[in-house]
């Protein structure tokens, strides 16, 4: 952990701010979460309930999809990444057990969520 990074518990301050933005249904952050949850549920149903599936989020692709639905100058890759992390931390998903983050050779991050009944209930409970 960088010494200059302030944390509340295990969650960095910027992510805590995004958790509040989602909880209070502020656009476009809440819209991003709703899009992710709907898409995740569709894929989970296709895989068959009872089976765990991995849902991968590429922030740049997500940004393109969201921009088609929501017009906002706040739709940046950084804001989308922080919103994704806020969703996972706010839902109390456990890193490595429920989700993990990978980094490409160029430094871009992809987020992977293990979709099952537990993670879906946790995320819906948060939102």
Question: What descriptive keywords fit this protein?
Answer:
127 residues, alpha+beta, 5 helices, 5 strands, 51% helix, disordered N terminus
List the SSEs and their pairings.
Elements: E1 7-8, E2 11-12, H1 13-23, H2 29-47, E3 53-57, H3 59-69, H4 77-90, E4 99-103, E5 109-115, H5 117-126
Antiparallel strand pairs: 1-2, 3-5, 4-5
As a whole number of angstroms, the C-alpha radius of gyration is 14 Å
Biggest sheet descriptor: 3 strands, antiparallel
Strand content: 15-25%
Helix-strand topology string = EEHHEHHEEH
Residues in helices, as a percent range: 40-55%
Mean residue pLDDT: 90
Number of helices: 5
Number of strands: 5
- Stretches where pLDDT falls below 50 for ≥5 residues? 1-6
Strands of the widest sheet, in order across it, are 3-5-4
Structural class: alpha+beta
The shape, in one word, is globular
Instruction: Report how far the terminal alpha carbons are from each other.
Output: 28 Å
Sum this structure up briefly.
This protein has 127 residues and is an alpha+beta fold. It has helices at residues 13-23, 29-47, 59-69, 77-90, 117-126; strands spanning 7-8, 11-12, 53-57, 99-103, 109-115. The longest helix has 19 residues, at 29-47.
